Amino acid sequence: MNNSLNQENLSKIKLTTARRAILDLLQSSNKPFCYEDIKDKISMDKATFYRNITIFEEENLINSFESNDKKRYFEIKDKKHLHFICDNCSNIECIFEKPDFLLKDYKIENIILKGKCKECNKNG
């Protein structure tokens, strides 16, 4: 997946080393990351991470959502898509198929589907 940042929104923030590290990591990923996923890859304390994530969310650069494990997951806001979270293995998948429904007069920002993933469904 080619994640591209909104350059107009990106120009509104000072791109520190810490911010660049977070954005690079999120851009190179094909799935959302939580803090625990990121802290193993870059050296940054939790307060610094969340302070920067808040700035990214305010500038509309990233999406976030909470998963089954009560952790918050983050990804670059690029192509509209929905997420599937497996109730069995807690795997998170980005789904790019358009949903088969429309809610008149609503603006949908995020769709999270839950159930059994393909792998868990195969195994019973």
Account of the 3D structure:
- With 124 residues, the protein is an alpha+beta fold.
- The chain folds into two domains: 70 residues, Winged helix-like DNA-binding domain superfamily/Winged helix DNA-binding domain (Arc Repressor Mutant, subunit A), CATH 1.10.10; 41 residues, no CATH class.
- The chain is 31% helix and 20% strand.
- The longest helix has 13 residues.
- The mean pLDDT is 87.
- Its cofactor is Zn(2+); Mn(2+); Fe(2+).
- GO terms for molecular function: DNA-binding transcription factor activity; transcription cis-regulatory region binding; zinc ion binding.
- This is Fur family transcriptional regulator.
- Pfam families: FUR.
Q: Roughly what fraction of the amino acids lie in strands?
A: 15-25%
Q: Over all CA atoms, what is the radius of gyration?
A: 16 Å
* Structural class determined from secondary elements: alpha+beta
* Biggest sheet layout: 3 strands, antiparallel
Number of discrete helical segments: 5
Please trace the helix and strand order, writing H or E for each element.
HHEHHEEEEEH
CATH-wise, what's the superfamily of the largest domain? Winged helix-like DNA-binding domain superfamily/Winged helix DNA-binding domain
The helicity comes to 25-40%
Q: Residue-averaged pLDDT, rounded? A: 87
What is the CATH C-level name of the largest domain?
Mainly Alpha
CATH topology (level 3) name of the largest domain: Arc Repressor Mutant, subunit A
**DSSP, total strands:** 6
Q: Name the poorly predicted regions.
A: none
Shape: globular
Strand order within the widest sheet?
1-3-2
Gap between N and C termini: 30 Å
Please tell me the CATH architecture of the largest domain by its name: Orthogonal Bundle
Count of structural domains? 2
InterPro entries: FUR (IPR002481), WH-like_DNA-bd_sf (IPR036388), WH_DNA-bd_sf (IPR036390)
Binding site for Fe cation: 97
Protein name: Fur family transcriptional regulator
Keywords: Iron, Metal-binding, Zinc
